[in-house]
Amino acid sequence: MISNIAKTMSTTKIFTRKFNTSTIRRRIIKIQDKEDFDKYVIQSKEPVVIDFFATWCGPCKMLLPRIEKVIEEYNDTVNLVKVDIDDNAEIAMDYGVSKELL
């Protein structure tokens, strides 16, 4: 019986299906401190979109998918840098972002 299975398997064509997948390079960077900001924003050789946000901010949450879509439309040649203003208040203040604006 095993030999019959082996014969069948060796003579049966195995159909394979190829899937073409494009690897979308997701360039979303969450800033942890001023050093990160300097590295990923100030010293970046690529264009950067900065998303100053707060976890409690409803409009910030609604805006994120739109920002990500724009990043994808540019074939992921733009980095998205997310700065939580509660965790990085000094950076936010340096760029004139305050809780009142969110």
UniProtKB/TrEMBL annotation:
<dbReference type="Pfam" id="PF00085">
    <property type="entry name" value="Thioredoxin"/>
</dbReference>
<dbReference type="GO" id="GO:0045454">
    <property type="term" value="P:cell redox homeostasis"/>
</dbReference>
<protein>
    <submittedName>
        <fullName>Thioredoxin</fullName>
    </submittedName>
</protein>
<dbReference type="GO" id="GO:0005739">
    <property type="term" value="C:mitochondrion"/>
</dbReference>
<comment type="similarity">
    <text>Belongs to the thioredoxin family.</text>
</comment>
<dbReference type="InterPro" id="IPR036249">
    <property type="entry name" value="Thioredoxin-like_sf"/>
</dbReference>
<feature type="domain" description="Thioredoxin">
    <location>
        <begin position="6"/>
        <end position="102"/>
    </location>
</feature>
<dbReference type="InterPro" id="IPR013766">
    <property type="entry name" value="Thioredoxin_domain"/>
</dbReference>
<dbReference type="InterPro" id="IPR017937">
    <property type="entry name" value="Thioredoxin_CS"/>
</dbReference>
